[in-house]
Amino acid sequence: MALKEDIMKIRKAIAAGLAAVTATGMLTLASGCGSSGTAQEENPTTLKVWHYEEDNGAMGKAWAKAIEIFEKETGAKVEFEKKSFEQIRQNASQILNSDEAPDVMEYNKGNATAGLLASQGLLSNLDSYVSEYKWDEKVTGSLADTGKYNEKGIMGSGSWYGITNYGEDVIMYYNKDMFDQNGIKVPTTFDELTDAMQQFTDKGITPLAEGAAEYPLQHLWWQLVLSRASDQFIKDYEMYENDVDWNDPALVYATQTIKDWVDKGYISKDCTGLKAEDVGQAFMNGTYPMFFSGTWWFGRFQEDMKDANVTFSTFPGSEKVVGSSGNLWVIPENSKRKDLAAKFINITLSDEVQDLMGNSGGLPIAADPAKITDDATKELIESFNDVLKRNGLGFYPDWPTATFYDELNASLQEVVNGSMDVNAALAQMKSDYDKGVQDAGVKD
């Protein structure tokens, strides 16, 4: 517990430090190219790359191909290091402010992550590379919002600090074999979803794979919010347009529903100690018939559940869904090989890499639809494109502050184990959210 508390203190100190960013630091955000201020190697022969994708996932496969192409085209050697999501999430500011920083790395998008680092001057301004490679012709609309940040680190406007090459949303996965074996229909409406969960519970089967130690439960909570929230509420919550009303019916409904589903046995009380990988593996092992999580799992399920009949849908009964662009490629300001890093990013947007990602179960943003041969993947891409067409991406709940990911998990854990009622949990969320926003100095 002491280690966790220390980490939280460090993260809160980083967030608080934003309020004291000097005018000189702000100039970094306005400069044309992020390479200014950091001496660049002449004719570099290596490139240090970090990401946290699994080897058998769509992005892992695609980026391995990108490394292969990069080494062949440039003659430079890639020094690849796989990091965990949590390693990078918790330690990015410290790492990027040191000589240990990579030249290019995968990083989470949003105000509290990429926006925070951009506002601290730790990420390179990519505007000149966007112009050179015409990345803004491939990364457009809501997919571009998460790559741009203003001087306060708020996404959606300003300069480019990250480039995505895929999209993602959070969907409901169904193990249809388990449904068929128990004589239960795969749901297509919200009422059918709750009815199916009750039927599984009546048979002694916990229906929904959930983990509150990491992101899965907070994604479900946010999906329930989005099913009732207005567009203005989302803008207030994510972009700070107005103060958030933490008694908004959407927030009350979502938090109450999580409590009700735990009480009814739809979600296990043991989920407080389970991480994303734990529940993903449990779904793959046939412990649970349903798993609400991201499209980043799709390729793994295709690979690791070949003998199972897995189907999916967006969350029943909701126009808005949890999701956004995929994570970003960012170039740390301390990199001495920025031009080489930009070449690598460009290769990840190439036809060959994008088509491979699509055929491996990913959601590429620049693939040729005619080159996607797998029917299930075509269905996934069509589903995501439908979400984009209706402007249905609702982003993620932890983005507004640097500490809200852990704080939101903690509040939801209290709801699950019964140590907090709905009103107390919402009050705690409000306190954490308001303090994080205030410490970050993102509101006038």
TrEMBL record:
Highest taxon, organism lineage: Bacteria
Pfam hit, one: SBP_bac_1
Gene3D superfamilies: Periplasmic binding protein-like II
Record keywords: Signal, Transport
InterPro entries cross-referenced by the UniProt entry: Bact_solute-bd_prot1, SBP
Family stated for the protein in its record: Belongs to the bacterial solute-binding protein 1 family.
Protein name listed in UniProt: Sugars ABC transporter substrate-binding protein
Species of provenance: Bifidobacterium cuniculi
